[in-house]
């Protein structure tokens, strides 16, 4: 039995395997528990092992790749058109194997263990930030129920809560005042934990040459730089800067028919965390860029003359994504004197 490509549909406990020969005929169908996949595939002759880029796929890709197999990870949306008849695990594994043989399928590079570690830290930090935001909203609602309206901004809320620490303030009952103090302590704990992650990202960005080069780009701080290093790597899987911007969902969606193109809003595909951080960075750095007499600054000023500021912010984020690609591929720091691509 000669297997050319092996499709694996990863499950939490049970995985389905389908092997195709060079003609595309199915020569193997097998189901294994997840912990038995490595032993089973490790005994096979080197072949193409295809999987959807889902949870656990990168770890399994690293392990099987070390055994001489060629690993191809792909987005689930590229597998869906090849699913035949009713959807089940075996059909999914067969569709994965078939999609891996198509020359137009785009594959996801297998992330190194270091990249996976950095992404895990970013996900943990993102969860803490979401918890802090929920806690702040909880405090605002608690005060609003007692007729106290607080202006926007975390610092303004902190100032108001400091006033209620005084026991002589009669706007809150003693029990609610204790509850507010407990929530403030939780808030401070979240701040400390988030700050610890930020400190670690600063150390990572200082020790990594690629992250240091990315930090020279306007709007790319240590959080963005380390997240890009973890998710994009050396950007070798992207042929040009626009491909990276499209992967991040920063390019317009198209609705073209009859040869008449129609561009809509951004597609919002890909990594939501990276896209949001790039947009936040672009919004923060836009005033400084507009004030500079550089190719990027002149481009931003011309765009502001004919478009809304929010549109300019997203366009600048897409521009930063293209610059990120150039910095990663050419392995040199950002030069503001170079004309905007």
Automatic annotation (TrEMBL):
Q: Tell me where the transmembrane regions lie.
A: none
Organism superkingdom? Bacteria
What name goes with this protein? IS110 family transposase
GO MF terms listed in the record are:
DNA binding; transposase activity
* Record PANTHER family: PUTATIVE TRANSPOSASE FOR IS117-RELATED, TRANSPOSASE FOR INSERTION SEQUENCE ELEMENT IS1111A
Listed GO biological process terms: DNA transposition
Under the heading InterPro entries, the entry gives:
Transp_IS110-like_N, Transpos_IS110, Transposase_20
NCBIfam families in the record: transpos_IS110 (NF033542)
Domain Transposase IS110-like N-terminal: from-to ranges: 6-144
Which residue intervals define the domain Transposase IS116/IS110/IS902 C-terminal in the entry? 212-288
Short name of one Pfam family: DEDD_Tnp_IS110
């Amino acid at each position: 039995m000669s297997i050319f490509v092996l499709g694996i549909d990863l499950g939490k406990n049970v995985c389905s395997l389908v092997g195709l020969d060079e003609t595309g005929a199915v020569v193997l169908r097998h189901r294994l528990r997840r912990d038995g996949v490595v032993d089973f595939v490790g005994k096979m002759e080197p072949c193409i092992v295809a999987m959807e880029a889902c949870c656990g796929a990168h770890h399994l890709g690293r392990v099987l790749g070390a055994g001489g197999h060629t690993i191809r990870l792909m987005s689930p949306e590229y597998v869906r058109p090849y699913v035949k008849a009713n959807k089940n695990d075996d059909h999914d594994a067969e569709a994965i194997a078939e999609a891996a043989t198509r020359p137009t399928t785009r594959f996801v590079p297998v992330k190194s263990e270091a990249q996976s570690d950095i992404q895990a830290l970013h996900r943990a930090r993102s969860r803490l930030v979401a918890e802090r935001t929920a806690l702040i909203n909880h405090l605002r609602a608690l005060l609003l129920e007692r007729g106290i309206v607080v202006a926007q901004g975390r610092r303004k809320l902190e100032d108001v809560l400091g006033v209620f620490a005084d026991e002589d303030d009669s706007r809150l009952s003693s029990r609610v005042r204790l509850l507010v103090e407990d929530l403030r302590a939780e808030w401070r704990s979240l701040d400390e934990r988030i700050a610890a992650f930020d400190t670690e990202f600063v150390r990572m960005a200082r020790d990594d040459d690629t992250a240091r080069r990315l930090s020279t780009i306007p709007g790319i701080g240590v959080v963005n730089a380390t997240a890009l290093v973890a998710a994009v790597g050396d950007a070798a899987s992207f042929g040009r800067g626009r491909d990276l911007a499209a992967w991040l969902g920063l390019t317009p969606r198209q609705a073209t028919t009859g040869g008449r193109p129609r561009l809509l809003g951004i597609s919002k595909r890909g990594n939501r965390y990276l896209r949001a951080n790039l947009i936040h960075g672009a919004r923060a750095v836009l005033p400084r860029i507009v004030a500079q007499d550089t190719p990027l600054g002149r481009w931003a000023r011309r765009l502001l003359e004919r478009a809304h500021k929010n549109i300019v912010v997203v366009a600048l984020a897409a521009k930063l994504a293209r610059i990120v690609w150039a910095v990663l591929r050419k392995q040199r720091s950002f030069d503001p004197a170079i004309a905007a691509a």
